[in-house]
Structure formats: structure tokens, C-alpha cells
């Protein structure tokens, strides 16, 4: 891979085992460095004391882990502080910057360098004649969008993407605008991360969300953590894991990589532990299945439980099964017919280790099973999550404290986006209420999800793309195909806080619309506004910015949405300006439309807000049978063909989604390198590959086409045989646009079939490239 232009030479790449606790002093040093680099030592420290606190605090714009129930003064984590400081930076990228750099020049910059320029300060429009972004007045920007949308032959020629950064109130207005315009083309980041969770839980339990809250985590006897890199993706979970270990709960981590969170931690707000450098274990058992082998492992645990039940009726909760489930006999027959040999072959885990995990489950009175993208981003992700529910049902681990399914969302309000209407497949009841309350006629046909939006743009059927937050060009699969799709649009516009790749991969016309960050005060006519978010466990609470906006020309997300709507809908009856003046008015309307949001304004101001009721928690199953449904899917074949490896993409520790803070990955012991592939040492030797050798990675898509990355560095890592891993977004180029699950429609980011060979030219470790841009010349479709 060619180095990015403008990269500063650094020391050669390095790799060493990480043997320290997660968080602790390593996190403290990293946070201090970031605060100093962004020039925010004073303001950043003040923000730390305000983050994730009620009564004037703001919600961390990072992960969706719930706020502490115990009033912890420092309910924070390293990555959350990085995320906030990155937003609060004093650096600015204004009109002088864009006058000095063409878009063609900026395309050669690394993604790190683009975002590191600082906060956007005013709206910008692309000038094709000069190849520069130039300032534009907000009114003119809205009119450009409005006239383009009004000129479409069909409202379905536009798509409205949402990332998890959007608050609930803005989310509601956004979907209202799209539906008043006449489309359900509302792709979102859930389409790429937890769509499988929603579909599986809806089919099994009648609810699209987990049933657990923090109280369940604090009272459970056993935690099973599947496909989660908690130390980086949900670092505040470390507190819950440490507390669980201290009170004697069993903690089983199931992941192809033994991550730092699965070893031990020093929780930063526990000052005595920090002072003594005293770590707490965060696991009692670690199991490493093959990539995609989790379903077979869970099936094995269920098989062990059913075998024990033949001599010990207490191994099952037969009363629960009889009263609250359907399909048990069929499931039991399926499990009995699945041999241990097949379970071991598909999971790549020995029977002895599977039985150890099953014993933990059997001996626990109450169990919580948690999972993340390591489970969902597979062809069989829905089946795997349903198998998890099957296991929970066997012992009645639904509908009681300390037990249940607990998916963990990786982005702050991605779950709230879906709850508040961002759904390309909306339900009829929701649309009926929206029509009645908001006096619109919403479309009833399903819209486009993320993958189908990219395909439609590529075919020229979607001509306008709006990105509400995020960095769509890098987050989506099949990077080159996605680039071509975006460039095929008549208009692309993005609501953002910082410059990123999506602004440079633009349509024939393009706009950058800068918005307030979550840390900033949102002044409207009704005073300083608060917005709400929903965490991974269905708690809804308020967030209040604390800092002066980075520029006087920034607008809030609701104000930007209202401006677009008024320009695109000249005869609208929706009181857009009235809503923006006071967000309580938006919440009053949401309370009438959204189930579970009744009395919204009062309840959201309660301590810690309120929890949206989950019917399955009360043993009310909104399934066709009125009961929890066992599933009977066959085990998928996860054994790679000879010479083939299974590759999963992941984030580094010094990264948040597509935002890269550095080329280091502290918890995996990686220094100065992102263009790498982690491999089992025996797989490397079998292929004649030594540490840091350059290798060529070729992925074969479902349609038979191939995509390649050349010159990546091979790094030895403790992975199961036949498995490999590397960073997104660099490796998104390997995911073909047709490589998505037929169960969930999610891109198969963790289910790539690849061959890896030593490159013919060059050897030795690469030097630092500071987050090289999504590869272009080094990628081939064969």
C-alpha cells in the first residue's frame, strides 16, 4: 500500500504482547497526551467532570454503555475522553483552509490528517470549476438542497443516512422530514452493526432490544461476553466486569481474540486501586472459537445442559419452558441429533472447554449473555443470536432480575435512532400514529437500507444522498464501489463537525453543513436546549452541552433539518421553526407517536431518565404464538476451504468507528502500523511468511469476484488456526457489495474468505503511514 501524502516519518512498526491491565495508568497517560495535543487540558478536564452526569452533564458521544446507577463521579473512559477532546479541539478549518487546498489535493491526505485539521466553521459548497469548497450562506445551502429534492422525479430518488451521533429529537424530525417528502429510504448505521440483533430478538421474543439493564449486570451469577472487545468498544463495561468478579460472579469471554478486557483491569475512578496499581480480574474463563464458530459453541452448551437434564431435572426450567415457550421439543430433537464431533469441528473448540462453559451456565441461578459485532456481522448472525436465546430459554433466563439477552451497541445513540423512527422497514402501527399526530401521509412501502442505497446510487436510481453525521464513504463496504456510487449522485450533502473522506467523495454538487457538537451549548429562542439519547439498555436521558460553540455559524441538527424541510416542502404544515425554538415541543409530539415515550418531558427529567418498557422483560411475548420461540436452524459450515482463511475486520484501540487517533493499538501491542493482518503463527509458517513480511490479501466475494490488498504487514497473533484479522476501514475494500447476510442484510465485515500470500517484492516492517487513506491503486477487482 502506498504511504499517504504528508505523513510524518516515525519509528518502524512494532509488535509485542500486551501484559498490562486494561484502563489504569496506560489509559491515564493516553488521555493526558490527547488533552495536551488538542490544547484542551483545562476545558478537557472540566468536560471529564461533566460527562455522563445528570443535572447539567452531557452524554458521551462515544459508546452507548449506560450511565452508572451509583452516582460515580468519574463515569468515564479513555476512548470517551479522546472522543470528546477530538470534538472540543481548538483547531479550526475555515474558508482560508479550503481556499488553499483543492479537493483533488485533499483526496491524497490521510484520514487522520483530514480530521486533525479541526472543527468546521461555516457551510460550504463545492465549486467544480475551481475544485475548491467555498463558503455559502445557510439560506442558499438550504435552497440548493430544496430545489434539487423538489426537482426529483420520485422522492425515492433520495436517501437519508443516519449515524449514531444524532439525538432523539433530531432523529424524530429527520424521519418526519423524509416521510413527509414521501420516502422510507432511511439507511442507518444499524444496517451495518446490529440489524441481526433486532431481527433475531423480534422473532424469538417479540422485541427488537435486549431485556437487561445495569441492575441485571450487578446481580447476575454469570456473564457470558461474546464477540465483544469491551476495553476499546465499551470501556465503561470494565467497571461492571470488575465488580462482578469481586462479588464472585463467573465471567466467560468467548472471542477469537483474547482481548485486554478479558484479562484484568484497573478502573480509573477507583483511586485506591490506581494508587496501589492493583488490578482486578475481569474473567474466569476465556474460550477462543473460530471466527463464526459461536453458534456451534452455544449449541454445544445447550447439548451439555440437555444431557445433564436426563439425570438432573433442575438443569432445565421445565415450568418456564412449558408456560412461556413454543418449539422446545423440536429444538431438543435438533440438539440431540447434532453430534459432538460436528460441534467441535464447526466451533474449533474442544468438547472439554465447551462443557466448562456449560457448567458455568448450569450452576448459575441467573445468567446474562452479551454480544456485539463479533456475532452480528456474519451470514448466520440472526441464527446465532436465536441460538443464544434458545440457551437462555432452557433455564428460564428471561423475564427476571439478573438474567437475559444483552446486546451492546457500539455508538452513542444508534439504538435511539431506530426507536425514534429511523427504519427503512417501518411498522404499520408507527406509521398510523405518525400520520394521525403529524398530519402527513407517510409512504407505506419499505425503503432502502445501507447496502441497497449504495447499489441504487451506483445504478443512478438514487440521485441525492444526505449523510447525517458519520463518514459514510469509509464506513460502507466495498470502498471503491461505494466511491463510484457517491460520485454518481447529482447532490451529496453531509452534516458534520469535522472534515472527513465523505466530503471529498462527492456528487456532481456537494455541500458540507457544519453542526454543533454534543459538548456545545445549543442556544435557541426558548433558551439553551437539551437533547435526549437512548443507551444500549433502553434508558433515555437528557444531555446538555457545556462549551461555547466552535463557531457562531454552526447550527444545531434540528435547525439544519428544519431548514432543509422548509426549503424542500414549501406547502408543509409541520411547524418546523416552532419545534426548533424549544425541543420540549418536539418531545411532546414524540410522546404521542412513539410507544413507550408517554409523558416524555416529565420522565426524561427524572434522575437517570427513564427506561423504555420491554414487554419480554415482563414475560409478554409479542410473537405470533404469544410465547418465546425456540429456533431450529442447522449449524452453518464455518470450516475454511484448504488454503483459505476467515478474516474479520475490527477497530484498533486508538480509533472510534472511522475516526483514527493514531497508528497505535496499545491493547494489542501494535506500534506505528495500521496496514496489517493478524495471523496465527502456524498459518504464517505454512505460507512461508515471517513477522512483518509484506503480504497480499485476496478476498473472494459471493459473486465470484475478487478484491485484493497488497503489501500489508503480517503480524503474529494468538488467533485460532484458519483465522485472521485486520482494521476497518482499511479492509472494507475487501467486502464486496454483494457480501451481505441474507438473514440480516448486514455487510459481512467479520465473515470474509481470503487467501494470504507473501508479496513478491519487499520485506521487513513498514514505517508509520499515519492512517493511510482507503486504498485505491493497491486494490484490484479481478
What is the architecture of the largest domain at the second tier of CATH?
A: 3-Layer(aba) Sandwich
Quickly count the helices. 31
Question: What share of residues are in beta strands?
Answer: 15-25%
Using DSSP, what is the number of strands?
34
Quickly count the domains: 3
Q: Whole-Å distance between the termini?
A: 17 Å
Give the biggest sheet.
Answer: 6 strands, mixed
Lay out the secondary structure.
Blueprint: E1 14-15, E2 22-23, H1 24-37, H2 41-50, H3 78-88, E3 92-93, H4 95-100, H5 103-106, H6 111-115, E4 119-120, E5 124-127, E6 132-135, H7 138-150, E7 158-162, H8 168-181, H9 195-205, H10 214-219, E8 222-226, H11 230-233, H12 237-246, E9 250-254, E10 264-266, H13 271-276, E11 280-281, E12 285-287, H14 294-309, H15 318-324, E13 325-326, H16 328-337, H17 340-347, H18 351-363, E14 367-371, H19 373-376, H20 381-394, E15 404-407, H21 414-419, H22 428-438, H23 450-459, E16 464-468, H24 472-475, H25 479-487, E17 491-496, H26 501-504, E18 509-514, E19 523-524, E20 527-528, E21 531-534, E22 539-543, H27 557-568, H28 576-581, H29 583-593, H30 600-603, E23 610-611, E24 628-629, E25 645-650, E26 655-656, E27 659-660, E28 670-671, E29 676-679, H31 681-686, E30 694-700, E31 706-716, E32 723-727, E33 752-758, E34 780-781
Parallel strand pairs: 2-10, 3-4, 7-16, 8-9, 8-14, 9-12, 13-24, 14-15, 16-17, 17-18, 25-32, 29-31
Antiparallel strand pairs: 1-28, 5-6, 5-18, 10-11, 19-20, 21-22, 22-23, 25-33, 26-27, 29-32, 30-31, 30-33, 31-34
Helix pairs in contact: 1-3, 2-3, 7-27, 8-27, 9-20, 14-17, 14-18, 14-20, 23-25
